[in-house]
Every structure is written in structure tokens, then in C-alpha cells.
Automatic annotation (TrEMBL):
This is Flavoprotein involved in K+ transport. The lineage of its organism: Bacteria, Bacillati, Actinomycetota, Actinomycetes, Micrococcales. It comes from Cryobacterium levicorallinum. Keywords: Oxidoreductase. Pfam families: Pyr_redox_3. PANTHER family: FLAVIN-BINDING MONOOXYGENASE-LIKE PROTEIN (AFU_ORTHOLOGUE AFUA_4G09220). One of its GO terms (molecular function) is monooxygenase activity. InterPro entries: Auxin_biosynth/cation_transpt (IPR050982), FAD/NAD-bd_sf (IPR036188), NTF2-like_dom_sf (IPR032710). The keyword Oxidoreductase applies.
Length: 596
């Protein structure tokens, strides 16, 4: 009778633990299959790093093992699987931290290993049994209340006392990261130019809703209520972020704009110039995080004749939504998420709308995406199966980017079959569809380029029915009253909306720090897949995201709600370790590739 999955994993872990503690690198590497992947989040590499193959793993262990001192590898719960393919959740420790891992074994050898740092020893979050008392049960004169202490601390930080970290950008990413920092005791100020937390959502077009389901979108520590809608309105999200900021007691400087930042080499700290409520303030943090969204500045192409256009024109990021467009002709340049949403909004408000599609687009129907791609990880059924949000995040991360396409292709093949009639109808009206260059669908497009897709929440039917027209081709020039395509097609226009995406996040650095620093950091996002808008070389992790950059003490944080939640944990731990003076030797700092 073959051994149970639990027995198989326990035997592997015992041998792995022994090899690592005895510094037997050959013995450890022998426990991996010929095709193998070890993805590490901070625990071994102080980096986000994927090792591919035995040679990579051997090289990493040779450099890190003496410093990391890993031990005590053990099952966190019974292993699962059968017939030579088993999976397991694993706990382990290092000299400095406690970790959590996910392991896949094929025929007794490791196929994939994900290791993650979860807490630093001696610097754990004050939670559970370690939570603060909150009050002294000793009556003395002059005692100060919680509110008095909080108000006094907020008044000092940034003036009499300097924060250890400044986060530029107070949207979902900055807010979630600041919550992690507070739990770790890292003095942090969030800089946000809007008047209130959540305004970056409130200020978008009024019909905007999340396209991702609620189970995918929780913030750290405080999940949405059980009656929260599956797809929340942008104003509802804005209100949640505002209240979250208050509940989590963040040092959140709204109505504050960062105007310049420079590194003081002598003091080894940043000099950050901000204007708060009209008053200049200088902050001197040791660590500086840019959390300015999923991407950089709006990308608004300049077409011949645009300056002569007599109507209204703006980028999608400035589209207010609503209004009365009865009798107006609107042309939307672009065919991804924002373009579809804005076309739907304009059609609802009376416009005669044409979408100009310049390149092919992947479309996933929302219901199909939830059922086929997300349901196993982020759904009520997943929760019923014991897949918590935290486990789902780790399971998604457990597949390195090299093999993620092979896991996604069957999902999107099934989607193509299930929704064949839908796709045929779109093709019939001239919409140019794709499933990615390799058929891997939406998630890989997002990771590779952050664009090129639409999650259909209704706008596709407008195209199919002809209520919104579709024209394919490149835009040649603009006249005072029209848009002219390269094939000579002329589209009358009273409004042009450029749903043309955004640049790289390091574009912000050029203006706020310097062009030299922006280029030293290099491009953000993408992982070198050598697919459209994600050129090689292969890097295996998203460029510059949530990990050390080539500019010391400068970090980039961003992504959707899921990524902001999950990866903020690792970024916060890296910054906390530096604050406490721990050794943080970064293994194979990623090279800078590409400028702005």
C-alpha cells in the first residue's frame, strides 16, 4: 500500500530540514525534480525571487544558507493529493523570521516550492495574546486618554519627530501598506493630494464598479462585510477606504502634494518636500515608497490636428461620466476596460458612440471568469472548501510565472468553448479578439503589460447589438470636427476620449526625484515574457514591484486590490527589518531594464 500524502511530505521535509541544517547543499538539491521552481518572498533572499532549476537553487543556497539558518520544516495541516502528486502547507523558521510555505511533490521530488516570510522574531505584530492593554488600571492625576495621545502623536509626526517611512500616494495601495506598517510599529506618513481618502475612486466616472469580485478585493486585516456586494461601486469603495484609514489609525496627510524628493547621502535619508494644506513641510524619512497606482502618467498620444479639434477631448482618467450627451457624437480611442466602460456610460447618456479599436483585445465574460478562473480561489465555495483569502493569495503565488501560462491556457480554452456564441457575435461586428499570444488569457496579459483586456460587465452586448459602433484601425489625424482613420474612414465627433492607457510607474520618479533616478530604477511591471509590451530579458518576477530597487531605500508599491493586499506584507517586513537594523542581504538584486 503506498504511503499517504502526509507521510510522503513528512519524509521529504525531514530530509530537507536535515540537509539545510547540516549545510548539505547537494543533499538539499537532490530532493528537487529536474524541472523545479523555488519562489521565495523575502525569507531566504530578502527579495522576491524565483529560482528555476537545480543550478539556480544550488547557487542561491550557497550564498544564503549560512545567513538564513533555516530549520523546523513541518506540515501545517495534512497534505493532499494522490498518485505521486501531493501538495502541502508547511511552516518553517529561519534565524530571523517565521515562514509559511506551499510545496508540490511529484513522485517524491519537489516540483514547486513557495517560501514566504510571515513575521520577524522579536518584532511581531501586537495582536492576539500580544495586543496592547490599551489603558493602565492605575489611577493617576493627569492621565491622558487614547484620543489625546493619538492627537498629540499626529501633531508631532512630521514636525517634531520624523517618520521612518513616507508613502507617496494614498489610494488603496498606500492605505493597505500603511496599515501593515502601523501594525509593525513603523512610523509612517501617507501623502495624498486629494481632500479625502478614497477620492481617487470617487473622482472617476460615476458608473464605475469593480470588475473583480469581493472575495478577491479585501484589504489587509479588515475584510468587507458578508453582505458587501460582489461588485462594489467606486463610491462605496471610496467610502470604505476613508473609514478604513480612520479605523486603522493611519497618519494620513490628505490635501498634501509631494513636490520633490532627493536623497541626502550624508544623512542617508530622503528629503521630501510636500505642501500640506497650502503650507510647505519638509520630511526626512529613511525609506520612501511610491504607491501611485497600477501605472504611471496617462498616455495621451498626440495626433496631427488634435489642437484644432473644436469639440471636447480628454484622457479616460479625466472622464467624469454622466451628463447629457443627447445628439452628440463621441469617439472613444481604445478597446480595453476603460474604453468599454466609458462607451457604455456615453451611450446611457444619449451619445452616438463609436469605439476605435487599434489592436486586438481579450474579453472575458464576468460570470465565466468567476466560475472558471477565480471560483476555486476567491468565492463562497472556495471559503466553504477552507480556502481563505490568505490561502488563495499564496496558492495563486505558488505557480511561478514560467509555468503559470500552462495552468491558465486550459481555463481560457474552456472559456472560449463555453462562450463560443458570444465571441462569434463580437467577431461578426468587427471586434478583433485574442486570448493572449499564447492563449493564456486575462491574468497573464495583466501581469505582462497591465492592459489589453476587458472583463465584460455588459458593454460587449452594446457592441453586438450595434448600439455602440466598432471601427478597427489606426488613427491617422484629427480635423476640427472629426477623427480620420488610416484607411480614410472619417468619424464625426463632438467628443474624443483617449482610453489609451498609462506609462510605466517610474515615470513619476522622473518628475518627483530625477530622470537619473527614474532610469536607475528602470521600468516597472512586466517580467520579461518577450510578448507584446513586455520585452525580455526574462526576469521571472514583476520588475521593481514590492522589493528592493536599484536605488537604495526607494520602493515601488502598487497593483490591484488583491496584489496590494498580499504583497504589502512582504514590503512592510522588508522595511521593518531595516528599521530594526537587521541584516538584510539582498540576493541577486534585479538589473535595471529600460527607461521611461
Amino acid at each position: 500500500m503506498p504511503d499517504s500524502p502526509t507521510t510522503v511530505v513528512e519524509n521529504w521535509l525531514a530530509r530537507f530540514d536535515s540537509a539545510l541544517q547540516n549545510r548539505d547543499i547537494d543533499g538539499a538539491v537532490a530532493l528537487f525534480a529536474d524541472e523545479c521552481y523555488w519562489r521565495d518572498f523575502v525569507s531566504f533572499t530578502w527579495n522576491l525571487k524565483t529560482l528555476e532549476g537545480k543550478a539556480d537553487i544550488e547557487r542561491m543556497l550557497a550564498v544564503t544558507l549560512d545567513e538564513v539558518r533555516p530549520y523546523s520544516w513541518a506540515l501545517a495541516e495534512p497534505a493532499t493529493g494522490a498518485a505521486g502528486a501531493v501538495e502541502a502547507w508547511v511552516t518553517f523558521e529561519t534565524g530571523q523570521a517565521r515562514g509559511y510555505a506551499h510545496l508540490r511533490l511529484n513522485d517524491g521530488l519537489c516540483y514547486t516550492l513557495l517560501t514566504t516570510m510571515q513575521e520577524l522574531k522579536g518584532f511581531e505584530e501586537k495582536k492576539g495574546r500580544n495586543r496592547d492593554q490599551g489603558v493602565s488600571h492605575k489611577i493617576t492625576k493627569g492621565r491622558t486618554s487614547w484620543l489625546e495621545n493619538k492627537t498629540a502623536q499626529e501633531a508631532r509626526l512630521g514636525y517634531e519627530e520624523q517618520p521612518y517611512c513616507v508613502i507617496v500616494g494614498g489610494g488603496q495601495g498606500g492605505i493597505g501598506l500603511a496599515a501593515r506598517m502601523r501594525r509593525l510599529g513603523v512610523p509612517t506618513i501617507v501623502i495624498e493630494k486629494n481632500a479625502k481618502a478614497g477620492d481617487s475612486w470617487r473622482n472617476r466616472y460615476k458608473s464605475l464598479h469593480l470588475h473583480d469580485p469581493v472575495w478577491y478585493d479585501h484589504l489587509p486585516y479588515l475584510k468587507f462585510p458578508e453582505d458587501w456586494p460582489v461588485f462594489a461601486s467606486k463610491d462605496k469603495i471610496g467610502d470604505w477606504l476613508e473609514h478604513y484609514t480612520s479605523i486603522m489609525e493611519l497618519n494620513y496627510w490628505s490635501s498634501t502634494e509631494c513636490t520633490k524628493a532627493a536623497f541626502d547621502e550624508d544623512a542617508q535619508e530622503w528629503v521630501v518636500q510636500v505642501v500640506r494644506d497650502g503650507t510647505p513641510v519638509t520630511l526626512r524619512p529613511k525609506q520612501l515608497v511610491f504607491a501611485l497606482g497600477v501605472s504611471g502618467y496617462p498616455n495621451t498620444p498626440v495626433f496631427d490636428g488634435a489642437g484644432l479639434f473644436e469639440g471636447e477631448q480628454h484622457h479616460s482618467s479625466k472622464h467624469p461620466g454622466g451628463g447629457d450627451y443627447t445628439g452628440k457624437k463621441a469617439v472613444v480611442i481604445g478597446s480595453n476596460n476603460s474604453a468599454h466602460d466609458i462607451c457604455a456610460d456615453l451611450w446611457e447618456h444619449g451619445a452616438d458612440v463609436t469605439m476605435v479599436q487599434r489592436s486586438s483585445t481579450h474579453i472575458s465574460r464576468s460570470d465565466s471568469l468567476m466560475d472558471l478562473a477565480l471560483g476555486g480561489l476567491y468565492s463562497e465555495q472556495a471559503l466553504a472548501n477552507g480556502v481563505t483569502t490568505e490561502k488563495a493569495d499564496l496558492l495563486f503565488a505558488s505557480l511561478p510565472y514560467r509555468i503559470l501560462p500552462s495552468a491558465q491556457i486550459p481555463v481560457f480554452e474552456q472559456m472560449a468553448e463555453r462562450d463560443a456564441d458570444f465571441y462569434a457575435q463580437l467577431s461578426e461586428v468587427g471586434f478583433d479578439l485574442d486570448f493572449g499570444t499564447d492563449g493564456s488569457g486575462l491574468f497573464l496579459k495583466y501581469l505582462r503589460r497591465g492592459s489589453g483586456y476587458y472583463i465584460d460587465v455588459g458593454a460587449s452586448q452594446l457592441l453586438i447589438d450595434g448600439r455602440v459602433a466598432v471601427k478597427s484601425g489606426q488613427l491617422d489625424h484629427i480635423t476640427p470636427k472629426s477623427v480620420v482613420l488610416a484607411d480614410g474612414t472619417e468619424l464625426d465627433a463632438d467628443l474624443i476620449v483617449y482610453a489609451t492607457g498609462y506609462g510605466s510607474m517610474n515615470g513619476w520618479l522622473a518628475d518627483l526625484v530625477s530622470t537619473e533616478v527614474a532610469d536607475q530604477v528602470g521600468r516597472c511591471w512586466g517580467y520579461g515574457s518577450d510578448t507584446p509590451k513586455d520585452p525580455g530579458p526574462w526576469e521571472g518576477e514583476l520588475r521593481n514591484m514590492w522589493k528592493p530597487t536599484n536605488v537604495p531605500q526607494l520602493w515601488i508599491h502598487g497593483g490591484n486590490l488583491h496584489q496590494s493586499r498580499h504583497y504589502s506584507n512582504y514590503l512592510a517586513l522588508q522595511i521593518k527589518a531595516r528599521m530594526e537594523g537587521l541584516d538584510t542581504p539582498v540576493y541577486e538584486l534585479q538589473e535595471s531594464h529600460y527607461t521611461r
